[in-house]
Amino acid sequence: MADIWWKADPHDLHRLTDRVSSVYIERSHVDREDNAVLVINRRENVRIPAAMIAVVLLGPGTRVTHGAIRLLADSGTAVCWVGEQGVRLYAAGLGPSRSSGLLHRQAWLVTRPKERLNVARAMYAMRFPGEDVTKATMQQLRGKEGTRFKELYQEHSRRTGVPWNGRVYKTGDAFAAGDDVNRLFSAANTALYGICHAVIVGLGASPGLGFVHTGSAISFILDVADLYKAEYTLPLAFDLAAQGLTEERDARVALRDRIADTKLLSRIVTAIKALLNPPGTDFDTPETSALWDEHVGTVAAGTNWSAQDTHPATRSHLDLSPAALGEQHIAIVGPELKDQAPLPGQQP
Amino acid sequence: MTVIILIAAPEGLRGHLTRWMVEVNAGVFVGNPSRRIRDRLWELLTNRIGDGQAVLVEPSTNEQRWAVRTAGRNRWRPVDYEGLILSARRPAHTQDRQSRN
Prior knowledge:
The complex is a heterodimer. By secondary structure, chain A is of the alpha/beta class.
């Protein structure tokens, strides 16, 4: 493992907007073979063009190896674990962006109430085109949004003939509702969250620093996804229910088609750009790693800044012994294997 | 659309390429990588193809609307006949010589 020539440089990676939105994997092993991300199941082995995908959604029955995750991270692909019936569990990823500029900007905005309110208003303004919300309070905006959705439910119910008995949603159990529209809406939203997550981490922003939502580790994802529910997931849920397509898979596939048709990934990128509006920063800023300085801003990293000569003798205080596994340190390490037995379904 | 064909590629190269493109048959890769990424992938391929062969066919603004790049040993070479890209091979009786990358 000395020569890691397969490692992708940021320049090797496609921008998020040039990628396929999502790939969903279920009941399979995700492994690494021959430097490829390989999906193995009883039926087939498929190699995934990870660098061309924004987010990989891992469904129930998947098993992922360290090697696979390493390649996915290296490809700038977000990974999102989704549970039974599409409940979003957990997501991780380091997108193609390798710079912290946008994250700084987001943190700056979210920690100043005046700035935060302006961003939140801008988010609502995107949903009420032509209306002036620059003076509105958060309470007024929440009220307007609630009214808008009530009207949308009724409108789509009339349009498709699918009865609507109110939104039933329990966190963590999105499928408590029992009716298909609610379930499809939740499943489609989950996929939308995964995609928004991919875009947010892909641009190098934080999923947790929300403007309208707060408290949750995915607050900003919820903020961004809310911009598109009325246009994407809600009509989709009614359309599918009207056609008798009630599988969560139908919601995911239909959403993906609609995302591709309407270039949603680019739209999300543009929206985040407009909302966070980082002055003079480009989203494709190359990775720069520096050390912060309170007077001059930044100084070079990777440099020894000790004033004295960095003679090895002056560094003798460093403990260069290997880390001891004391009683305080509990690790579970499997035994080394002589030959790796091939996985079921994998050609040796 | 871009097509890359690898023949007798060293281990790990084909798998690496599948992160950017789809391998539709052994050694045949199809995808839509951007110009920048095509160039970078090609640089990697020419450095690592060794005794194998690599061919890249990509869209171009010429009359034929495509261009070809080749790398590796004993490869067929694209020849420019007044703007028309044709392929040249050495006659079969000539000796196998190490070609430049």
